[in-house]
Specification:
CATH architecture: Up-down Bundle
Helix content: over 70%
Structural class: mainly alpha
Distance between the termini: 52 Å
CATH superfamily: MFS general substrate transporter like domains
Largest sheet: none
CATH topology: Growth Hormone, Chain: A
CATH class: Mainly Alpha
Number of strands: 0
Strand content: under 5%
Number of domains: 1
Order of helices and strands: HHHHHHHHHHHHHHHHHHHH
């Protein structure tokens, strides 16, 4: 039975992640608007992606290991405050440099929020299955936020006047949502004591995060996370272009059809939130990876030889336009499930450091996936670019076997030995020598 306090915390976590999903997914829309409003070139505008992703990785590396010392609730409130101020600046000081500042703040705030949020899940769930279920649910909420971003921003865009700055009014609404959520977090305190190690120093915390990488279980995990994000980002980023150039869909429809992929991810994660509470993660994810590979192999041949059709509508579009985005249903459970398994296998005071590694390798995977797919798309073909996803799918399938073997060792031992215990054993051995 959930307490009222736990329920308030979960609702505030949902809303927090929802807000960041809207902001993180708005880069493409914002790029289009600043090109029209501020006379910025496409090359210059593309730097906004780097302001976001590189900041996420950098801030995560710096602060993740000792965020538990600062406090997860305070970290999330600080991130939301940062985004609130930056959002207010957008309509008050409309300029390209303000937009850069916004995504710099969004990246830094998301790093604080995601590490804190993932670490908090371990504090408010009772066992590994509940942990996995809640992780899938909250990632499903994130994808609902991604979907909402398209509709929220489009509601403030003046289609009749491309140079209108009315779209900036969306940030008043975003700032209001952030302010509400700060208040919700403030009145929902929770016990974070189990996430802290008494007597430890900041240098010990940072060293602990680096030493996590030496564990076989951890480096198999980060390989899996990295490759998963390579797949998701490459498909999510380049699917509109694929729809337009390969499937010959009109530009507006190419973007609209891409929302099927986001919707499939959302439904898949919300559904997996129920399934993962009842089933073991390994057979579920193995089945999902095999289904992904099968969908790629069966669907991409349908995309060859498609001709332009000036009368193309939603009713007579190529079947591949609707079938291929459904890969999101099978991709959906993988990221939150293996993240949950990894965190559940570690002591709670190591969750913050581990979450930092998750965020860092996710950001790097997103950048690498988008670049590789873009290069292959440009120099070879769109089909070959998406066929390449079979390689990381196969590697993840293999890596999950070893990941399961390592986590089973911990389960069979009753509890994992944390890094502090290993340090103590090393010191004892040296003293005996």
């Amino acid at each position: 039975m959930q307490t009222a306090s736990t329920l308030r915390i979960k609702l505030s976590l949902f809303l927090t992640y929802f807000v960041f999903a809207i902001l993180l997914n708005s880069v493409g829309t914002v790029i289009l608007q600043i090109i029209n409003n501020y006379d910025v070139s496409k090359t210059d505008a593309s730097i906004l992606e780097a302001f976001k992703d590189l900041t996420i990785a950098f801030v995560s590396f710096l602060v993740a290991s000792f965020l538990a010392r600062f406090g997860f609730r305070k970290a999330m409130m600080s991130g939301l405050t940062m985004v609130t101020v930056a959002s207010l600046a957008m309509p008050l000081v409309p300029a390209f440099y303000t937009t850069k500042l916004l995504f710099l703040c969004v990246g830094a705030a998301f790093a604080l929020t995601k590490v804190s949020l993932y670490s908090t899940v371990g504090l408010i769930t009772r066992d590994a299955k509940e942990h996995a279920g809640f992780m899938n649910t909250i990632e499903g909420i994130f994808m609902v936020g991604v979907l909402s971003s398209y509709w929220l921003f489009s509601a403030f865009i003046d289609s009749e006047n491309p140079h209108s700055q009315s779209w900036l009014n969306v940030y008043w609404a975003i700032a209001a949502i952030c302010a509400f959520n700060i208040a919700a977090l403030y009145v929902s305190p929770y016990d974070e004591s189990s996430a802290r190690v008494k007597g430890s120093r900041v240098s010990d915390d940072f060293r602990g995060m680096l030493r996590l990488m030496a564990r076989p279980m951890v480096y198999v995990f980060v390989i899996s996370i990295f490759l998963y994000v390579v797949i998701e980002q490459s498909i999510g980023t380049w699917l509109p272009t694929f729809n337009n150039e390969i499937l010959k869909l009109p530009s507006a429809m190419s973007v609209q059809v891409t929302s099927i992929f986001a919707a499939a991810l959302a439904l898949g994660r919300l559904g997996a939130g129920v399934v993962m509470r009842r089933m073991h993660w390994y057979p579920v994810l193995t089945g999902c990876l095999l289904a992904m590979g099968l969908l790629v192999i069966l669907t991409l041949p349908l995309t060859h030889g498609i001709m332009e059709n000036p009368l193309l509508t939603w009713w007579n579009a190529p079947p591949a336009a609707y079938i291929f985005p459904l890969i999101g249903l099978f991709m959906a459970p993988i990221y939150p499930a293996i993240s949950s398994v990894m965190l559940s296998a570690l002591p709670k005071h190591q969750h913050s450091a581990m979450c930092g590694l998750i965020v860092i390798f996710s950001a790097l995977g997103g950048t690498v996936g988008s670049r590789i797919t873009g290069y292959t798309f440009e120099h070879f073909s769109g089909q070959r670019a998406f066929y390449l996803s079979l390689i990381p799918i196969g590697i993840i399938l293999i890596s999950l076997f070893f990941f399961k073997r390592e986590t089973d060792k911990i389960i069979n031992a009753g509890s994992g030995m944390d890094l502090e215990e290993e340090d103590q054993e090393e010191n004892n051995a040296l003293a005996a020598a």
